[in-house]
């Protein structure tokens, strides 16, 4: 019931396609995920470096540069994808088409796990940033994040109608906020010569004991980890490649331009924050307690505020609205980023179901139910994560980046194959030259993302990345076995056109009788209407007096159908009835038996405990007999109107929801009063 | 699966009747419940009196006498019942027949609640007594009792075969143990002049602070509570009245004699323990901490050992085997007493189901499932109780006696009505005289048990009896609403013999097609065999390519059945299909639609997540349409053999169990290899 109330009308898939997006709207629609990572990627770089003590922060520049370089490579690579797959391929399609279903499945597993982590990381980062405004959240981050995910789930179950402007305002707001903050901060420092100091500027970081004598390998490992965490800034960049059909013409060109814009903005924002953090002496400590603060040589404790929070506080120290604007926009864009996962996860699930890797019902049953299950599964998994890790972005990020780079790398490999395949048939030298250039770019992309993947795996494996790898492997194996099962069943049930078909010679109707009442009479009428070869009613005698009264009432009805009474010394109904049906079958192996079971249709769940139990058991057992079909003849009790009204109300509620203009077919019968 | 493993073959109800019981076997069979209460009733009397300090124990004599007097009244009353209802009426039947269904329902509610308390109290007392041998149980009584109940549940689910001798040995052993202990103790004190002292003899009881100045009303209230607790000794006495048909001829006479014997033995044992406790200076303290020990004026703590344990230790101080024998027999008889509840509860449930007060499936579905549900429900409720009260008999006994005396009182009132009714028609003066004497006895019984009920309610209400009353009221209301629901449905579905019956004019067969494979072909064959007026296959198009391939395959099959394709812009199957069926119905209101749904029969639960989902939803929705019947055409996948083999294994296991000699019909099809 609760689910019914929550679940609303889903956005039709075609909807985005109906109104094509200009670049200025497409950018925010596809950018929220990628840009939002600017809210936590710099933090993770600085945090990891803090393990090396004060000296570590000097390395934030080169690391930001390395991340920017990877961003450049990824953007260039996906521009090729956008041109090659104007239909909106997506990494799963690219991998499946060019490298085969197993490669596609690897990408799909990585993406599914990553969607979960996107929700967990984004909401956790939102909660961490919210602490700048609501310090009381400290200590309850896990629960607050779980509540936030529940709220997102509820919103998505009811079906939020996302329009371009819904995305545009906060995304542009976030850009303006962060770039404005950076610009104003730099102007105050360099233009006005102010000495801006972050709240943590006076502190000294003692660093991690294990890294104390920082040299050689230890330092390299630490830098690799900081770089890997910073690569979180790249998540979500690939989203545009799925959405090419939503762009205005020329689609591919516009999408490629938007992609370049997105990459440029993300890198600029990331660099701005790192620069500002260095200039204001901002410090961050590992919330896990591996690095420590000291003030004037005396160890001290401080609350963990995000870099965004500290910088906004510092830069806008004389202009509080600026501070609130930056924090609010950061929170909103993080929520939007989580929301994109809520849209993408069920869509990918539906595509996988179409290909037989997930239960087919998720695809064919259509929109609402399948998407609801996907949304609930995603929310449940993300809630488990934020509760286990107490919404610590630093812990969650260890699991996060693996999936993205698995998908990047496989997809780039797929693109190389794509070009190679097309080069084999292409004769036009100009086109060939362009293809060869694209192949080189994708080769660079493959090398770059592959190296990053290795760095990420090596530097984070023991810190949590192994969990992500395990999860992907589990999802991969599960989907493969589902596909195998479907293939086995499909082979088992395949019909050859030449197969001889034997029609059963006769149909023998058997009506199960427990009482002589309207439902039973209806079953008799329906059975007679089907004109079976033979027809009889069967009752199991569990109480002699009762049986006699049933027989008398049967006589009184004056039916032309004979009533057969089966003895049951153990007051059991199912056993003797099944044996009787079995007997008919073995006496007439070429005939088919059709068992008619009168069924009460009730309006409340508890009523079903009081009715139909014997029929349900019979049906389950009869299913295991060859050549027996079971016909349920429903009889609607007066109370069934409650269930029908409930179903109608739900539908009406879906209709009335603002914005759901399209006509939708009713799922339940309107049931005129005829009987 | 687990349940299937646990559940075994049930004892046929008729079995006890097949071999009629001589008195010497009937006594132990029916006495375990009644006699076992001797293991805790004296403790509860002494415990309650201890609240009044040392002075309290002097009142144990008169209270034992009062309990004996009530026992005499109850035994005399039930001898009348035994003579009047030689068919084994039981309190529920007596109340229903003489006072109407509501009175019967009151008794049934009281008995159901009491069965639960019998299990909880008996097992708890068993654990308390076991502490005499295993002191390590101290502190874990609740969990140990819960485990004990689980073991009893498992035993009963598998179906223990109880024979007379199974009961006889421990029951007689318990009698010999307790009476022998009393006799030997009295002989040592009076015959040999020994000065026997219980382990707690040297202690002084400080008593409850609230009762310190014991006078007037406070003392009366305390004595009433002690008496009420002592009345626990009467529980189970009525059991013989249910079992008259199991006695040898003359049944009623033998049952009445056994009843008198039982009462005499129970009172003797109770009195013996009270006497011995007084002579040896035995002390008991309230484990709830309302009374305290002192030794030489200094407060002290002692472990809580039962009276039975202390007496056995004292009397057999020089003969340890005697001590172990008494404790072991006490534990066994308490377990047997709990076991009688496991037999009685499902039987009563089945009778109530027959009368429509519980789901009818519990009666008609026969033996195994119904009894299993009853056994599990009983065990679960009892486990909750022992865990809440940590297996404290003293706490549980506050809830216990209410139900017994409700049932006694109502039953006695019913017996008075019984005699009055018969006196109205009886003319033979000798018979009339006997009836009038019986009515006087039952009137005394009614008065006696009624007064005890009032005392019990008044003295224990706030200590826990109100919970028992609430539980009874809840059970009563629940059963009444179930009955009302059945009556309403029965009125709604009643057929009058003169009612005109319209046969539907035509049957229109609709076959749901999702794929062209063997299950679909089978559905087509079966539908064709039924010779419907019109027949068509219907598929919902969710993917154009797929639909084209389905149409091509359909053509290739060369079927005479047309395939109709329904468009579905939203990739939804159920909605458009239901609308199509609805359309047929409203175009042809006098016809019946029969929807054929091919169904995969699978062998593992997880496979059902991968198949049939669309069919299941369709069936549930089609049920709400008038004039539509749904036929499932099962197709057994190869994996279904696992489920069939599982069912067979279970049945074979039931057959092979030693002692289950009777032939039982197989529940599942043996399925010869024909297709």
UniProtKB/TrEMBL annotation, chains A, B:
Keywords: Membrane, Transmembrane, Transmembrane helix. Its main location: membrane. This is Amino acid/polyamine/organocation transporter (APC superfamily). It is a multi-pass membrane protein. GO terms for molecular function: transmembrane transporter activity. It comes from Propionicimonas paludicola. The chain crosses the membrane at residues 58-78, 99-123, 143-160, 172-193, 258-279, 323-348, 369-391, 397-419, 440-458, 464-482. GO terms for cellular component: membrane.
